[in-house]
Design a protein that fits this description.
Layout (H helix, E strand, L loop, with lengths): L1 H20 L3 H22 L4 H9 L3 E2 L17 H8 L17 H9 L4 E2 L5 H4 L11
Parallel strand pairs: 1-2
């Protein structure tokens, strides 16, 4: 078996060296044609975006109070999961300050919300981001 593997490796080495030493310039120039075509195809594909990507593009790195799920609030200290759940339960909001009008907020929670208003944005409710009540459990484990 070792002998067969050795013979196979030798044949592969001979074939690969033969391909590199005897390649034509015409064959190399044909490769450029394929790469130009594939680049234009990739550019056309990159212009397409799904609805979720388009919605995420609107918020520019902030948390959308009407469309973010509970896990998105983990980066803010003291929000996950209790305060984040309250925010989601009382959505939709017309503006960022409406989040301060949530009933049953403690003073500590109001203070946290007030100090983080710059981290929030409000956009229209998107079915793609809210379908199936996924804002509470987005299924990412």
């Amino acid at each position: 078996m070792k002998r067969l593997a050795g013979i196979f490796a030798a044949v592969l080495m001979v074939l690969s060296s033969w391909g590199f030493s005897g390649s034509n310039a015409a064959q190399a120039s044909e490769l450029n044609v394929f790469s130009v075509q594939s680049t234009s195809v990739l550019a056309a594909i990159s212009d397409r975006r799904n609805a979720a990507d388009a919605k995420l593009g609107e918020i520019s790195g902030k948390l959308d109070l009407n469309n973010s799920d509970v896990r998105d609030f983990r980066g803010l200290r003291g929000f996950y999961p209790t305060l984040a759940s309250k925010i989601i339960k009382n959505a939709p909001y017309n503006n960022v300050e409406d989040v301060l009008k949530i009933a049953d907020l403690s003073e500590k929670q109001k203070t946290r919300l007030e100090s983080n208003l710059d981290n929030f944005v409000v956009t229209d409710v998107s079915a793609v981001m809210n379908a199936g009540d996924d804002r509470y459990n987005p299924g990412v484990y």
